[in-house]
Amino acid sequence: MSDDLKVLAKKLFDDGKIDLLIGYERGTLPLRTTPCFITNAEEADKLVWDGFCSNNLAVYLPRLFSREGRPKQWKPPRVAVVAKGCDGRSLVGLVKEKQVPRENLLILGVPCRGIVDLKKVEAALDGNEPADGEIAEDGAI
Fold first, then answer.
1. Residue 2 phi/psi, 5° resolution?
2. Which three-class secondary structure state does DSSP give residue 7?
């Protein structure tokens, strides 16, 4: 799935369809991801999608599209955002409340088989933090 997302992101930038993509990249801690803000096709290789992607990226959009403090001629960016199904509901709400202009938003829906519960992982490791790990095809860590 991560490879498909990278290819799509590169195509969207190369075709001039978006100015910014909000997605996930590997975090500095094991079994963690962090939000990333990509502004060109070359940065798309940072993108990941797996069960560690827990943040709701919709939270970044209202401030991004706010006209407060911007010059009168400011034009809102064209933004793509990676969204799980549950995050999609937040995006719809932001559009309905006119906090995000629909014409400037591209939602990249990704299938979600669930998010890894890191507390359960740590409990299985007797309270120790994992040094490294990944999700196998069968969903095992």
1. -60, -40
2. helix
The answer to whether 24 and 37 are in contact (CB under 8 A) is no
The residue whose two tokens read 């943040």 is: 55
List, in order, residues 6 or more apart from 46 with CB less than 8 Å away: 25, 26, 36, 38
Q: Which tens digit of pLDDT belongs to each residue from 42-100? A: 999 999 998 888 899 999 999 999 999 899 899 999 999 999 988 999 999 999 999 99
- The CA distance from 125 to 59, in Å, is 32
In the chain, what are the helix, strand and coil shares in percent, each to the nearest 5?
35, 15, 50
* Beta bridge mates, 79: 20, 105
Task: Specify whether the CB–CB gap between 34 and 27 falls below 8 A.
Answer: yes
Q: Which two tokens stand for residue 71?
A: 């010059």
Number of neighbouring beta carbons within 10 Å of residue 31 = 21
Dist CA 2 CA 108 (whole Å): 12
Round the average pLDDT of the chain to a whole number and report it. Answer: 86
What letter represents residue 52's amino acid? Answer: F
pTM for the whole structure: 0.82
